[in-house]
Amino acid sequence: MQLIRGFMPQDWLRHFSSHDFRHSFRQILRSRKRFLAFLFGITFTATLLLPSLTPAIGQDSQAIAQLKPQAANPPSKIAPVTQPAPPPKRREEIRGVWLTSNDFSMFRDRKLLAEGLQQLKQLNFNTIYPVVWNSGYVMFPSEVAKEAGIQPFTYRGNGGHDIVADIIEQGHQHNLAVMPWFEFGFMAPQMSELAVNHPDWLTQQRNGKKTSVTAAGEVSWLNPFHPEVQKFLTNLVLEAVSNYDLDGIQFDDHTSLPKTFGYDRYTLNLYRQETKKDAPADVDDPAWVSWRANKITAFMSQLSKTAKQRKPDLIFSVSPNYHDFAYKQQLQDWLSWVRQGFVDELIVQVYRPDLNDFLSQISRPEIMEVQSKISTGIGILSGLRNSNVPISRVFSQAATAKNRGLGISFFYYKSLWGYGPESVDQRQKDLQYLFRNPAPRLARQILSKK
Hints:
Layout (H helix, E strand, L loop, with lengths): L1 H6 L2 H8 L3 H10 L1 H36 L27 E5 L4 H5 L1 H13 L4 E4 L2 E2 L2 E2 L4 H6 L14 H11 L3 E2 L2 E2 L4 E3 L3 H5 L13 E4 L2 E5 L5 H17 L4 E5 L12 H11 L10 H25 L4 E5 L3 H8 L3 H6 L5 E5 L5 H8 L2 H7 L3 E7 L1 E2 L2 E2 L2 H13 L3 E5 L1 H5 L6 H11 L8 H6 L2
Helix pairs in contact: 6-8, 10-12, 15-17, 17-19
């Protein structure tokens, strides 16, 4: 207050201390000069006082934030961001579905494909993820695969047409963003030409075993740290990005490595060269886990950068498991990928039958963090060939995700209404209610291609 007194005219203080303020105020108004001085004084006083009030306001906000419930057992890998935040990316609602190898009969037939995509458009979907890399083979004509000697055949449609080109063309006709899905990542069946012809590209477990059992059966794993493997996958991606009018590319939980792998000669020598130590026998050793995960992160960062140099507006999408599992079990630190700014879209696979468990998973802190930065969705299981999922479960999980502002992608197309205890009409009706209004995605880019 003493500071204020030093700057305020003495007659102002007299007016402020008067018991008859209204009378004094009228006196001020009679004089234009005195009125302008009055306004200046009020503005000056506010300028002095507001900075002192601001910290208190911030402290109240922090206190309110601390009252919010926190997710139980947050992943140990999550840490405060220590690097500058990347520039904000465009966030859009994801309404997607994966087109898997089980949908191949639709891929091959242009008429069936047109009918299926038209149905998705009517149900207000906006994105499709057609598989293009599966079981060690690509779904499009590939010079890269031919040079690697891994594919003695080429997938073609019933009319001899390029399947991937047709999916993209028809997808755009129905205003669907099309993001080819490199499903198998570093995984390859042990008897595929890729595994048989390039044994030096494979990695192994400490006991010498070179395969693991997955949902896709017993598979080998390409060594993510080997330069020839990195070059091969990069060239395969660049071939697709260069030859097709795609909107993005996607990699899932197989662009990773099970934690028990990495004990091949090449990787052991590389680890010894860089750390001056032998690789730990303990697969869960934090330094060993971190070193391998960081190598995969570096490769994915470079892959994204290289692909976007070829196509700047490309969407680089990933669809992993929840982070604690992905990092500790699969060496896939996707949270760092997002924080480093080279991922544009995230879809976390949450295939849980229990709604409470589902809600717990989609409420994890890392998902909330990513959701504030990029387009984020949840992968929901809509059914399998030998295990159908009731539409009531599909709907309740999708509605729960939507209520949290998250997008959705269903695994997979045929099971949306091809499998299940309800009729096709009933399942489509519920999906229509879920997406009651259109949510165009990439409308500007898609319309410009027409």
